[in-house]
Write a structure and sequence with these properties.
Oligomer: single chain
Number of strands: 19
Largest sheet: 10 strands, mixed
CATH class of the largest domain: Alpha Beta
Structural class: alpha+beta
CATH architecture of the largest domain: 2-Layer Sandwich
Radius of gyration: 23 Å
CATH superfamily of the largest domain: Pseudouridine synthase
Number of helices: 7
Distance between the termini: 15 Å
Order of helices and strands: EHEEEEEHEEEHEEEHEEHHEHEEEE
């Protein structure tokens, strides 16, 4: 079985847990995902199976979309609801006094190309160690800011109400939609948003609704995948390797060209493709056999990743 399964990850499990479950369902160890979701988060997790795991490099950098709830009123040490509250500073204002104009101005300032410091409670590695491992041992280390792109950061009405008042009457929940580049930490976006407003903030909820071209409407719960596996019908929802990369142009090869590509030899391509553009290389039957890179000067495609060997 080769292809992608779009999983609707539930809260309370890690992305690694989902991969382990899929391994058992499909009966192969060649399983991986294209972008981690925190344990408390839910939503789209693209899981690659079999030879399709070789395509991960073409998907990991895909744009992501989220729906989240930012709790305004206090920060936490992890940036999300699982953490310990951080006492507000002496100049902090109360969230209940926030005005709509302040919120919109703060959101606008965080859109576009921004620099973001990775949180300590993250799986990012520095000198071979994951940051969350250092954080749990009480260590704080300096992290370099990295460029990310926030294409959309906007408020959403939840149950028809723009901002929810919580029972404590001191915190406010703001539902938001975020579209961002790969590598963006929505927790950090929430924290930076709270700092701009002077109230402190953290993520109360996070749901990924899209990863690249794959949306939550295509996602299957673990329960549904288990039912399909028990019925020997999981192939009904697996996405073929060729369809996974449908956003790349395709080049259909004759039998001789297929043999060349399987041997890692370039094939000719008279096309108007852009230089270094990725190309799907397919057999006459429409099977993806490789992903190549177009060399405009030579009018050739060089196989970068070969699936069928």
């Amino acid at each position: 079985m080769d292809g992608a399964l779009i999983v609707d990850k539930p809260a309370g499990v890690t992305s690694h847990d989902v991969v382990a479950r899929v391994r058992r369902l499909v009966g192969t160890r060649r399983v991986g995902h294209t972008g981690t979701l925190d344990p408390f988060a839910t939503g789209v997790l693209v899981v690659l199976v079999g030879k399709a795991t070789r395509l991960m490099q073409f998907l990991s950098a895909s744009e992501k979309e989220y729906e989240a709830v930012i709790r305004l009123g206090y920060a936490t040490d992890t940036g999300d609801i699982t953490g310990t509250p951080v006492p507000p500073g002496p100049d902090a204002q109360e969230a209940k006094h926030l005005r709509k104009e302040e919120i919109e101005a703060a959101m606008a300032s965080l859109r576009g190309e921004i620099a973001q410091v990775p949180p300590m409670y993250s799986a990012k590695k520095i000198k071979g160690r994951k940051l969350y491992e250092l954080a749990r041992s009480g260590e704080q280390i300096e992290r370099q800011a990295v460029p990310v792109k926030i294409s959309a950061f906007e408020a959403l009405a939840k149950d028809g109400v723009p901002m929810q008042i919580n029972d404590d009457d001191t915190t406010r929940d703001l539902a938001v939609r975020v579209v961002c580049s790969a590598g963006t930490y929505v927790r950090t976006l929430a924290e930076d948003f709270g700092k701009l407003l002077g109230v402190g903030a953290h993520l109360a909820e996070l749901r990924r609704t899209r990863a690249g071209d794959f949306g939550v409407a295509q996602a299957n719960t673990i329960t549904r995948l288990t039912e399909l596996a028990d019925a020997d019908a999981i192939d009904e929802v697996i996405i073929s390797p060729d369809a996974i990369l449908a956003h790349f142009p395709a080049l259909d090869l004759n039998d001789d060209e297929v043999r060349r590509v399987l041997s890692g030899i370039d094939v000719q391509c008279h096309s108007t493709l852009e230089n270094e553009q990725c190309v799907r290389l397919r057999s006459q039957a429409g099977e993806l056999i490789a992903v190549g890179v177009y060399d405009a000067a030579r009018k050739m495609v060089h196989p970068r990743v070969v699936l069928s060997k």
